[in-house]
Design a protein that fits this description.
Elements lengths: L1 E6 L7 H6 L9 E2 L9 H21 L7 E5 L7 E2 L2 H4 L35 H7 L4 H4 L1 H4 L8 H31 L6 E6 L5 E2 L5 E2 L5 H4 L3 E4 L19 H8 L25 H5 L9 E8 L19 E9 L3 E10 L4 E14 L22 H13 L16
Parallel strand pairs: 1-3, 1-5, 2-4
Antiparallel strand pairs: 5-8, 6-7, 9-10, 10-11, 11-12
Helix pairs in contact: 2-7
Length: 408
Amino acid sequence: YVYVCVCVMSSLLAPVEKQYGPGNKTSLSWAFEGFEDNQLPDGQIADHALSVLEQLKKNASNGDERPFFLAVGFHKPHTPFFAPKKYFDLYPSLQDISLPSNPLPPVDMPAVAWSDWGAIKSWNDIKALFTDKPLCKNDTSVAFTEKCTMPVNKTRELRKAYYAAVSYSDAQVGRVIEKLESLGYGNDTIIVLWGDHGWQLGEHGEWAKFTNFEDATHVPFLLHVPGTTNSGMKTSALVELIDIFPSLAELAGIPVPEMCPKESRNIDVCVEGSSVAPLLKEPTRPWKQGSFSQYPRPDGVGLKAIPGHPPFAQGDNEHVMGYTMRTDMWRYTEWVSFNHTSGQADWNTVWGVELYNHTASMATNFDDENINLASDPSLQKTVSILHSTLKEGWRSALPPHFEQEKSV
């Protein structure tokens, strides 16, 4: 195989985005202004990807038929939600854009879990809505109420703009795949499409990515393997982005590095992820018992002080770490003290615990995590089991065929 990896993030800004970006008097959270696709970064990135593919084809016609790896990083739907008008026109008028069904934080949510989405408020059109609401950053009795949620009209604007930005990026992915196929690479190219984080659009009163909720941690991960996935398939198995590298290596016939031992700082190459190749043959086979992610506090967007704790020191961006684990039934999160220098967690100093129900009847709905069940007396055995698994980490949740490796 030759293979191409298509992802959905970049840090590029085209001149038109610099004109409207943060720090400029005209900074806006979204706009279309009659842009053409290639006036914005993603259209330019796609143009470059097409030229690279054409050069690779030319090289092959001259005898250079080496397999290639092509990574294409798209910026949208990152803020600002800029996209050509035709992508906005794909969606209904504002009054018909749906609002989140859960616009307030979960019941019994620990304050440390909250983000005041300061990055979104840096855009002038949104900043103007909150200049007279300083308590939204510091007072939990106000911050978690409707007084500090995004106004309904602006919520609809942003949700529609986000959808348009997604469609714009999706169109660029389509251009790359269309070129790949037109050059004759479609039948021997592995394609993976992924995003590095989720995004909150007003669910729980949150915006952007700065939490451990499902909306912020659940990401796209689509894999095309010629001859294997041609008819389409899906799995409900828990997978993680660290699985991409070993998966591509195995599918391309490249030796997969060994699983990392518990002490791996002096090892040049090892993996913590699991190749998903077996799932392509048997999508319902037993797999990981959990997937893991983490996010720090205060990180610049959390509350400046947590009730019951001293205020965070100036510049202290990783005093607390939120470790979260998603299983087939639950999302379990612990916020614990964290030593940034050593990278070690203090599991005995707990700032907050969260447990959300994701049983089969609820798991397909992003609006699930509305009641924190961590203190429910009937679920303390579940909390204890999940705590042990979370503390032990990813090794405790590997697929069954990795049983030997996790004890190394």
